[in-house]
Amino acid sequence: MKRCPECRRDYFDDSLFYCLDDGATLLEGPGNLEPVTAILVDAGRLASSDPGEAATRIQENPIDKQSRPDNDKRKSLRLGNKPWVIGSAVVLAVLCIAGYRYLVNSGQDQIDSIAVLPFVNESANADVDYLSDGMTEALINTLAQLPNLSVKPRSTVFRYKGRESEVKTIGRELEVRAVLNGRFVQRGDDIALFLSLIDTGTGNQIWGKQYNRKLTGLVSLQSEVARDVSESLVPKLSEADEQKLAKSYTENSEAYQLYLRGRYHWNKFTVEERQKALQSFEQAIAVDPNYALAYTGLADTYTVMSFSSNEMIVKAKDAALKAVSLDDSLAEAHSALGFVLYARQFDFSGAEREYKRAIE
Fold this sequence. Notes:
- The protein is of the alpha/beta class.
- Helices cover 56% and strands 12% of the residues.
- It is built from 16 helices and 9 strands.
- It has helices at 36-49, 51-60, 62-66, 71-80, 83-108, 129-143, 154-157, 167-174, 218-233, 239-246, 253-266, 271-287, 292-305, 310-326, 331-343, 348-359; strands at residues 2-3, 10-11, 27-28, 113-116, 120-121, 150-151, 178-187, 190-199, 205-214.
- The strands form 2 sheets. Strands 4, 5, 6, 7, 8 and 9 form a 6-stranded mixed β-sheet that branches. A 3-stranded antiparallel β-sheet has the order 2-1-3, with no helix packed on it.
- Helix 11 packs parallel to helix 13 (292-305) and helix 14 (310-326) packs antiparallel against helix 15.
- It is elongated.
């Protein structure tokens, strides 16, 4: 058994040499530690008989010599004998700070949800609305393929077209971390696109860029925009994701414009507009016979028109099958075929198969 001469704490672990509370050197056993009052009495008794002997005994008393080191020595004992405590505290502090910063950055800096608002047509020409709307929808479809990113669909974001709304308000209403705004201008064969990515929590712009191209470079512009926006959201893309973003379904700018025009009319949901959509899709296919997306537009249009004509059902299925044969990895193609099988031929198992493939 050992005892601290400073705080009088008893220790039953003989392997300890220093007090854990104040760092003082431990002394063996309580029997060797006479109370201070006993020492004083001893000293008084000795002084009455032989003052010299008393002084000598008090000076040589082991308690007095061992339990009262000077302040500098006491400090060195307390710190010097516990370096692992100081080192551990420093390491723990560093880890805590690093961990906190990581959690804060990973929780706030990573954008996991976005709404691509309809690009504003600033061309003073309503006839090119199909370009601004079409590019918006195409970008939504592309970003939706990225992993761990929630992208609001066209049906949700297009209700904001022509409306002035605060970014923070949109963020609350749609529950998204970021909003992408765009302004589109066409002057003759020149087009300009201005994009800005805004944090809905702070209202601060995260990223922005201006693109100036010729109309003939519309296809490459769409791919470039998709890549740039994706990289601003997901700093490190996998090779498969990069291939998805780089994929273009036609190299022909005219065919692409005709497809966008067809989708623009298709989304108007009237008989007259559907006829215009049908013409645009047919023209796109005439320009590029291997344009799978144009066949999906054709299939969707025929399917809606087949309510009044059985002949349209056959045309819708043929167009969807053609799209699948041209590009089996095209989600829109399998979705179009699933729609025909479900809504017109009541082939529910076949429709389920195609819809699952579209999701895949």
